[in-house]
Amino acid sequence: MDIVLCIRNRLYREGLSRLLSDRPEFNRVSACCRLAELPAFVIAETPQAILIDVGPDRRGDGPSQIRTAFRSAQGRPLIVLGVASGDAEVLASVEAGAAACVSADDSIASLVGVIQSASRGELVCPPRISRMIQTRLMDLSESQAGPERLSRLSQREQQVLSLLQDRMSNKQIARNLGLEVSTIKNHVHNIIVKLAVSSRAEAAAVARRAT
């Protein structure tokens, strides 16, 4: 496997390059020191994976650097070194394009395993991060689906839903709109069916997420 390292610190770059070059898993280990050089290295070396460092001595914003490297990687897996082990930092790195994150405490053997997994197309992260990503995707799906579902409602149903967001009872909504309570009950039922939810509270939540 051929890989490219992009590490600003010279001692770190040369040391890691030497250690990985000695491993039988790698045919060629190339290294550059700046993100601006990475596109040319990717074209010239055609690596199977790319490693970049965003450790404590980085210059600039970590996720921003990862996004820049991700664009340069042209679809190749990006392994990020030096990420703090906190959930927020790891999640931000994955959202920016990292296929895997390796902390300063991980061993060379662990790093090699991560590179191999990432090169197979796997997202390498703790289960709790996978769950957080799933939650983010579900929220995104809900936010995108919300406006489409709301468009199914009639103008009157949209009025009723707006008042449901204010936690009004059927009697209060009826008084506000000058309608019978039975009519409001029918509207609420139709809203719940059209939005594919199970309660008036969920219907109000869909409307809030869509605004």
TrEMBL record:
<dbReference type="InterPro" id="IPR001789">
    <property type="entry name" value="Sig_transdc_resp-reg_receiver"/>
</dbReference>
<keyword id="KW-0238">DNA-binding</keyword>
<dbReference type="GO" id="GO:0003677">
    <property type="term" value="F:DNA binding"/>
</dbReference>
<feature type="modified residue" description="4-aspartylphosphate">
    <location>
        <position position="53"/>
    </location>
</feature>
<feature type="domain" description="HTH luxR-type">
    <location>
        <begin position="146"/>
        <end position="211"/>
    </location>
</feature>
<dbReference type="GO" id="GO:0000160">
    <property type="term" value="P:phosphorelay signal transduction system"/>
</dbReference>
<dbReference type="InterPro" id="IPR000792">
    <property type="entry name" value="Tscrpt_reg_LuxR_C"/>
</dbReference>
<feature type="domain" description="Response regulatory">
    <location>
        <begin position="2"/>
        <end position="119"/>
    </location>
</feature>
<dbReference type="Pfam" id="PF00196">
    <property type="entry name" value="GerE"/>
</dbReference>
<dbReference type="GO" id="GO:0006355">
    <property type="term" value="P:regulation of DNA-templated transcription"/>
</dbReference>
<keyword id="KW-0597">Phosphoprotein</keyword>
<dbReference type="InterPro" id="IPR011006">
    <property type="entry name" value="CheY-like_superfamily"/>
</dbReference>
<protein>
    <submittedName>
        <fullName>Response regulator transcription factor</fullName>
    </submittedName>
</protein>
<dbReference type="InterPro" id="IPR016032">
    <property type="entry name" value="Sig_transdc_resp-reg_C-effctor"/>
</dbReference>
<dbReference type="InterPro" id="IPR039420">
    <property type="entry name" value="WalR-like"/>
</dbReference>
